[in-house]
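[User] I have long wanted to understand how a fold can be written as tokens. Those tokens are not coordinates but codes from a learned vocabulary of shapes. Could you go through the record with me and say what the backbone is doing? Thank you; the sequence and its tokens follow:
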Amino acid sequence: MEARGAEQRGLGGWGRRLAAVTLLCVAARAAHKSDLGGDAPSATINHSPMLIHSLRDLLYNSSTSDSTLKVLPANSQEVKVFHTHQLLLTLQSTVFENLFHNQTTVTLQEPADCAALFEKFIRYLYTGEISIHLNQAIPLHQLASKYHVPALQRGVADYMKNHLVSESSQGHVVSWYHYAMKIGDEGLRESCLQFLAWNLSAVISSSEWVSMSDELMVSLLQRSDLVIQTELELYNAIEEWVIKNNPTVPTVEKVLRSIRYAMIPPIHLFRIQKQSPVLVKYYSTVQDLLFQAFQFHSASPLQFFKYFDVNCSMFIPRNYLSSSWGSQWIINNPVRDDRSTSFQTQLGPSNHDNNKRVTWNLLFSPRWLPVSLRPVYSDSASSAMPSVRMEDGRPRLVITPAMSSSDFAGVSFQKTVLVGVKKQQGKLFVKHAYSFHQSTDEVADFLGQADLQRRNSEYLVDNSLHLHIIIKPVYHSLITIKK
């Protein structure tokens, strides 16, 4: 009895409060069982917000604490002191459980950005709630990782994936990509890479561009789904990146050989060949590619591909926003009714096809019902289908050429539909992209999960649906000449 009394006295006020909470919980469970067993109706009383508020207050009440954390920021002598409760910390983190083994005061050294957010981090351990800003995501994830708080790790990673399209003065996606690479988060890395690819034209004009690592730049340039104005815009941006970052020679050579020179008109190829300081310095690295690009532009594509391999990235267009390869289509109040429009694109990127055009017809329908949902009429009452509401349908987009396929023999077309979301500083960002081939006129899963009825839908900007349709002409050989 004496030992037990001493133990209870050692627990202090915090121990007595914990014991009281335990007794209340036991009593509540007993009362709940009694309610369920009787005839009286049961009810749930939820005071969890009040409990969370009380737990948050504990952090600022040093009289009930049983442990102390001293946080020392890097390159600083200013120590932040937190009077804490071991029970709450160790419930969330096994690292804290080990740190407090046989001691009640622990000193921690943290990077400055992590130390600045340590109070926010500790408050989360008490309440399970936290607010995050873009510039706080990485240090909070670092703290959650260091102290093994998996729920917060997942929460911050999900926040980053869901806030790639968010306004920030300095940009944040490139730094998030580099962080994802460092910690091995493949899901976050791929999400960042896809965002950068679909919004590269906007990224090029931001301060983030020159901060890209060699690895990220090489990864991006290998992709055919880059959304940019033209290949020339990409080359000019690469030149700026090389000049400001001064990467290694192998990296520069790899980057320059990733440019698709055949997609640049001859007049611009002549200019960069003579006036670009980077290309003048590394001309021998890409001389063969430039020569092949000039050959590509000087001959008929059908003749050219009799002798040269067409199945390589050099002759595959990226997603060019230039009017030669597509058109923007803004649909105001898209749930109202069907719409149609048309536009023209260049037949192909070869200079030989510079004056040849293909006309495309577009049809948008806000509430199209797939076959599986359309009503079936029958004399049998048992086979009658339930009534189908028009709002059960989904949006439909059809893209068809207005010309016969014989007019563009040797060329097939890949179609890409970009959906713009959230304007920032006058720029529209892309979060959704749909691609399909010439043989298919309709986007199969177009806006399948979208709710265009809501004015605050993520798919709408100022109650308008912003689309950009891109046509990518791909040459293919009809006749092969034996070499």
